[in-house]
């Protein structure tokens, strides 16, 4: 981007926690912020293209700490798109960007096609959210396994193995049969073989029982291996014990620590998480969603109530929470499929949080309802995520020297959570995105706009 | 074929029941037999290409009254080859021809791709057995249904419907909910919509219980509709009642009438079948196969014992039996799949009769073991099938005016059943087939030669 | 009952279709009506016990043409009560009588324990509805089979066989593998072996597909055998074809002829049913039930909508309809069981018609809503049922010489359907039933009163 | 037992490791040994009943470190015998004693009925093996759960819960959702509530995956709680990691440490087990069994091969191995049941090791084949087990002061393993058992003698 761009007369909320600056000017050059502040204090280069955004609010580009871009969640889709999973990632990344997410973190998917799409977007081949990815959840089998399907499959074994291997790359449930040394070697090899950006492993299982996959020593070994390779690491946990083990093992981020099954987080563990300001990727739900869940799915609601209780405690005690949706780009064919484990995707569910492109708005709404201060809501959806993933010097705030990612809103995001939806413009790497061109030719997904209400 | 071909010094067994003619000459022109008889009585045109087959036996091209060319029997295969089912039919037809089958009758498959392959072979685009097809078994659902799979499927409903419709074309199990008029109209429409060569309907079900799909009056209506449309008709039966109903409804051929579940065919019904010389497409098994079945699958063996008992009675009483295998072109991926209903395909099964390309040799062996006279074995595998399907004037014997389909054997087929395997040459429509070029690039199937022992 | 009982000052609606008689007197001696008519025309014996029922309405004892007294519908119950199924029948018969049903017809159950309970009640050992029973539905397997369970069972095969045999007594699905002679002999033996009162066979299956079990000739044979043995016969049908076959086979009663799956009854068949006044045991549902079904189970609702349409046509054309509920005595443990085929028993279902003791009130309500004249509603729930089952000379109207079965209501049953629920007294065989003593010590069932609202 | 008994002219192998003593005399009084040694050195009381056992070999009563007396392994059995599980335990204990097992250790079963039977046998109400029991495997659900059944159950949820609770007593899979404190409290309560003799917990799961149930810290807590309560503790392990954790947690005994899934025990861990002489309850199989397994179940055989490899290493390095069978008293109804997890019980399996009454002979044969010295085989099947379970001062050797449990053999057990089967007499607590009276009226089990060949 050789052109210089200047936004003038904005109200700037830069994501650092600083007070909003009215009548602000933001200058962008070569894809980076070069200045941002009160209009009268910022010098605009003579050759700058001027964009008058009077009445608008400028915030950092939004982020999501946990999404899944390859939404190939039915056997049919997995077979139909075999060899083209990168296309699914591109589709999802487009839809994410359209709704203000300039950076997202993919915490489960097939490494090779994800990395192809990641690099394709970075190289400008396609337009979409910038993303970083973990590939498989270390210790889980691929999508055509009991970890993700409730019922038995009717496929040839060779088909199941072939598809699953695209995810597992040697780090599926076979790891639970190895020694600690064996586990460490497998994870190191996985990192080398795939080139992923960070690691997520399964401290407990993905079949909703709460079985553990790794001992405390094995978890420590995984964390050590990742750190030696220069990668941050997080764990999938679903019980108080697996959360405790994850924390003690030295994980850098906590993936849905609010999901502790039938037991709320004990005080001591909660205190440690707060004190260390460990990034908590919390799957908060809105009151409206919980009302529906409580009345129609009382059995499932129990675990979610514990989770919401944990979330409220996190906020009360000042834990570092991050906008986290577990979203993917789903559409009609996924919704009508009975076998996939995570479950309830019917159209009837209000405030369904797991659709890429609308889920983050619902997290913002939920955090707001739970009492997170408006400025913290904003930072939890931008700057804090960048910091947590070790990218704080590059992204997350409107600060000179950082990538020029921002969202221009028509209404004040500190006044009401729904104002985040009122997007006038999305700018990524200094480029004003043509949002109308995104998500036009869709493969699988509904338009997230449909889920925005 | 403008060239004229003459085979000389053959022992000719022409399929009419006439005694073998030694030192015979067979003359072929324009794809048809023009002369056949003792060498000294046949005039060979001057421009004829002479083929000296001294020591060999010439018989009519072999036929199979019941095979399935689209062997797409696993969900994986069905999805992987969607849009290319004709390729599967071509593969199977190649393998059939390679082993002497110049004409086969496909009694279950997807009409549109089958007809595409049928016409492609007839037009000379690909080399393979000439075939005629019925498309779906009227009243059964497609391959992704309980009629063919034991367990539930893990597909999106839309996928299941889409695949099944390629078979059903409006004539699946929906018919059992209609009135007789409604059934008749659906069948008429099916014939018009598909262009199939003959019709097979399900008198009883394909889930091995013996439920009936159609009442006597409904069956009569189906038969009438077919006859009005000029098509011959047969029914799938699995019980003495469904067989009786099929006969009374006026079917032209009887599909596996030997399969009557737990009750052998009653005398009166047997007598009627024999007297009317109704073509009986019998799924005879060899003694070796039965020994294996009896010792390893005693439960399944019971029904097969009844079937064999029926077959022996057919032969004793002089019923018109036809070589019938129910074969398809299977390979490793099918054998390792648990879900498909018909069942036992493991490598361990001796004399497994359902592989295209070797199954007909096993039928011949079984019929021989049961006492069918050698000359009748030959005619049951050629001329009788052509007659039963209304093609007796075109195919089935080495008779001037008929299509020049024949097999040249190195040993006497009237001396031992295994001599049918000793194929020197296959000629179809007067063309000497390059057998070494058949089945070279295979998609799914094993080489039937592997099953020939 | 040596005592003589006289009810005075009643409004009598005697079930013959005659106009109500105000200030009527009904005299009962030896369990039978000896007089009934205007108070001034009836002579009351001097020794009669007088019962002044001023303000009340006296109607014949109510009847249900299709119930199931042995409500052993979960595997647990079947095992827990093995050897004591008669106790379950007694429980259900008590609850039926408590709510006005003096005679019911059991159309599916285990013959031996049912007959034990039938005879026990008749002998005065226990108090309950008088009942007649068919035992098994000829052609269906027992309760631990796919005919009644959706999923596979986890039992030892010997257990499954042992339980199922209590129902089947040689007439399960094995019949579909027999010849017509074989079927006829099995049914004859069943009648001799069990001593049931009437026969019900499966013209179509009980797995909601609509497969046929018997050919037209086989059905005729079953009907003939029953008639030779002096028994009336009915068939279970679920499609227009099976209904047509049942009618043509000469059945005496039609079991749920309104259930014709996806196709309404064709005009010609409807006309025949009406003309012959064949008793139609219709499973009518109330508008309230249908509203719930339509909105929450749209897929299931389709078939039920066809059924309701058939019912309305029956009424419009003057067919002979009978109060029919398919009810059994269910309670909490049944409602929470996923495996049993018939389905939706949750507490949330309004106007659930299949609970013994309340289902008949809902049939009355439904028939009323559909336009059946009030007097016909009454006769369809009493006299017509007795006639249809060949018991018209013994039961069904308040007529001298018949069994003294009646219900005393506090409100006019011809004025509103809910008035049937306002029971003051139930009299059976001339005995005033102590309703408060019925259903006190319950085994499985909820109190039907709970379902009355 | 007030009588005094003396065995004379025996060859005594007392289980201490001492050389056999020929022409030995053993004196028993009040159920205990009072003397044992060379005939010329032992004084026989004048009132002693003399038993001349010339030619026979006297060894300590045999023991099995892991059996399951309540063999209620099918849903049918569990329901049919509900309330009478103690009868099943009595049956199994009878059969065990009949074949020389004077003491056995029950490592999985329902605590309450087991304890009733344990106390009943100790009180002399019934004759059978003396036994000690653990009740449930802490952390696993009851027998009607996925831990023990492969497929879903068709029961009412209340039935499943009721049966499972008899096993779980608050210590099922609910524990994996608790904190370490919560787990410790639950185990302490379990011990207090049940009165079991020792504790077994699940370090890894019972669904053959190798999931962990408890973290290292949680395992330590469980061990500590047990030790505080005075109980020995062992863990169920199925992987190298769970075995390592078990050892580090301080377990007193190791339950099937040879079962480490796909990875043999690493050297370091093996060395530690050997050095500490931790009792290894090894499930050794004979060569004949392995041949069958390798040829017919190649997939399952893989894990068993690793297990056998571990066993051989144990023996080579001098680990302390114990006779362990995992046996229960099974019969025909169990063998024909598809759902139960552990699996292969068909009659065709040679040397099937899991039948109570014959399994221990097969362990002896297997250990012998693997090279365990004959004297060690004997001690592993008697004295070592008593020591490992903390009962060495009471049982396990023919030593004055200990309980007079012994087996009189007709052939030398140090000469050939099959000689253990040649039982002349079994004496328990000084009483000569009438073996012909044991197992006469059987409930479920086959006679183990049938499996002895």
From TrEMBL, chains A, B, C, D:
The coiled-coil segments of this chain are none
Pfam families, per database record: Amidohydro_1
Molecular function terms in GO for this entry?
Answer: hydrolase activity, acting on carbon-nitrogen (but not peptide) bonds
Under InterPro entries, the record lists: Amidohydro-rel, Metal-dep_hydrolase_composite, Metal_Hydrolase, Metallo-dep_Hydrolase
The Amidohydrolase-related domain sits at: 57-432
- The identity of this protein, by name, is Amidohydrolase-related domain-containing protein
Q: Which organism is it from?
A: Microlunatus endophyticus
């Amino acid at each position: 981007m050789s052109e210089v761009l200047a936004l003038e007369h904005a109200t700037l909320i830069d994501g650092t926690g600083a007070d909003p600056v009215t009548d602000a000017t933001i200058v962008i050059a070569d894809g980076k912020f070069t200045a941002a502040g009160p209009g009268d204090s910022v010098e605009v280069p003579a050759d700058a293209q001027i964009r008058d955004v009077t009445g608008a609010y400028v915030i950092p580009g939004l982020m999501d700490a946990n999404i899944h871009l390859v939404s190939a969640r039915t056997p049919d889709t997995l077979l139909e798109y075999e060899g083209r999973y990168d296309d699914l990632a591109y589709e999802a990344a487009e839809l994410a960007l359209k709704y203000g997410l300039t950076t997202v973190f993919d915490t489960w998917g097939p490494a090779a096609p994800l990395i192809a799409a990641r690099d394709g977007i970075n190289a400008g081949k396609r337009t979409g959210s910038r993303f970083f990815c973990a590939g498989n959840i270390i210790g889980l089998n691929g999508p055509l396994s009991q970890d993700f399907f409730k019922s038995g499959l009717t496929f040839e074994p060779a088909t199941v193995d072939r598809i699953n291997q695209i995810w597992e790359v040697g780090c599926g449930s076979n790891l639970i049969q190895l020694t600690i040394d064996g586990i460490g070697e497998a994870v190191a090899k996985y990192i080398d073989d795939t080139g992923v950006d960070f690691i997520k492993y399964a401290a407990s299982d993905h079949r909703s029982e709460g079985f553990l996959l790794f001992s405390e020593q094995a978890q420590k070994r995984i964390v050590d291996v990742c750190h030696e390779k220069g990668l941050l690491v997080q764990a999938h946990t679903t019980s108080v014990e697996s959360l405790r083990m994850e924390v003690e093992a030295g994980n850098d981020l906590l993936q849905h620590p609010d999901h502790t099954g039938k037991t709320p987080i004990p005080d001591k563990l909660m205190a440690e998480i707060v004190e260390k300001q460990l990034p908590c990727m919390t799957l908060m739900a809105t009151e409206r969603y919980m009302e529906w869940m409580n009345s129609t799915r009382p059995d499932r609601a129990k675990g979610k109530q514990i989770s919401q209780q944990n979330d409220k405690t996190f906020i009360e005690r000042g834990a570092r929470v991050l906008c986290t949706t577990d979203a993917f780009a789903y559409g009609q064919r996924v919704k009508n499929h009975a076998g996939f484990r995570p479950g309830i995707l019917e159209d009837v569910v209000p405030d369904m949080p797991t659709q890429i492109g609308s889920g983050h708005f619902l997290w913002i709404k939920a955090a707001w309802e739970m009492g997170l201060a408006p400025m913290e809501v904003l930072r939890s959806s931008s700057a804090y995520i960048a910091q947590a993933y070790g990218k704080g010097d590059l992204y997350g705030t409107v600060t000179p020297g950082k990538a020029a990612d921002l969202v221009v809103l028509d209404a004040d995001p500190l006044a009401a959570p729904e104002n985040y939806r009122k997007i006038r413009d999305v700018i990524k790497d200094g480029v004003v995105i043509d949002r109308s061109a995104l998500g036009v030719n869709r493969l699988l997904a509904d338009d997230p706009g449909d889920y925005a209400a």
